[in-house]
Design goal:
With about 250 residues, the protein is an alpha+beta fold. The chain has 3 helices and 13 strands. The strands form 2 sheets. Strands 2-3-4-6-5 form a 5-stranded mixed beta barrel. It has a 5-stranded mixed β-barrel with strand order 8-9-10-12-11. The protein is elongated, with a radius of gyration of 26 Å.
């Protein structure tokens, strides 16, 4: 009789067979851990961004309506959005150049900043010293490659906030009024967030939905408005470019 013969209902496995099964099991566990470690190390790092969820602070400054709602303070510039997947354009109408106070939650990524404004906290106040509306300055006519994102998620609410995996969410945010942005980058991988408007300066939301998360080449006029860079271009002239990889 073969002493290594084993049936599952027998309480104890024969020693020789038991050692072999233990070695195989240990090998499979080690191999699984190794594959997991390789997959983790191969993942791209999350962007240096943050959303201070649950932390609300007081802010004051001057409102700009163009290209999208912005709060200028003494030393910073904040895009303004409402809670959820909504913009703030309706709430800042007729407040161009006015000093206001508000309560909001900080969203930021690198040099770009945004505030998610607490509903019904935006109110006019006496002029704030040191804050002013900045003049627009045309820099150049450019052709850039990159991807259209919704600025709210890309700057920190979601991570990652770009690419095909984020397309549906980005389309809903932009259609709800969140400022669309064009993340342009060069051959070295350096990227910059440009607020995207039409060639006539109009806000673009639903007009760009079919281009969200697509690799694009866009030609237009690059404008500096305070600390923000704005790309004025027409959606009808956007060109899809399958040779572009998604920016990080």
């Amino acid at each position: 009789m073969d002493r290594d013969f084993y049936v599952g209902y027998i309480p104890k496995m024969p020693p020789t067979l038991g050692k072999w099964v233990a070695r195989v099991a240990a090998g499979l566990v080690i191999a699984g851990l190794g594959v997991g470690a390789i997959l983790i190390l191969d993942q791209p790092r999350f962007a240096d961004s943050r959303f201070e969820y649950g932390i609300v602070r007081e802010y004051s400054g001057v409102v700009e309506e163009w290209p999208y709602p912005i709060l200028r303070t003494r030393d910073a510039s904040f895009l303004l959005v409402a809670t959820g997947k909504h913009g703030l354009s309706d709430q800042v109408k007729r407040l161009q150049g006015k000093s206001v106070s508000l309560r909001g939650t900080l969203i930021e990524r690198g040099r770009d900043h945004m505030l998610e404004v607490v509903p019904e906290t935006l109110r006019p106040i006496a002029p704030v010293g040191g804050s002013k509306v900045d003049e627009q300055r045309t820099l150049a006519t450019v052709t850039l490659r990159g991807e259209i994102v919704d600025s709210k998620c890309y700057l920190g609410v979601m991570n990652p906030g770009n690419g095909k995996v984020h397309r549906d969410c980005a389309a809903r945010c932009i259609s709800g009024g969140a400022p669309p942005a064009f993340v342009a980058y060069d051959a070295t991988g350096e990227s910059r967030v440009l607020l995207l408007v039409g060639a006539d300066g109009r806000q673009l939301n639903r007009e760009v939905l079919s281009f969200v998360a697509e690799p694009l080449e866009i030609s237009g006029e690059l404008v500096r408005s305070g600390w923000n860079l704005v790309l004025k271009a027409e959606p009808a002239q956007f060109r899809r470019d399958t040779g572009i990889k998604s920016p990080s």
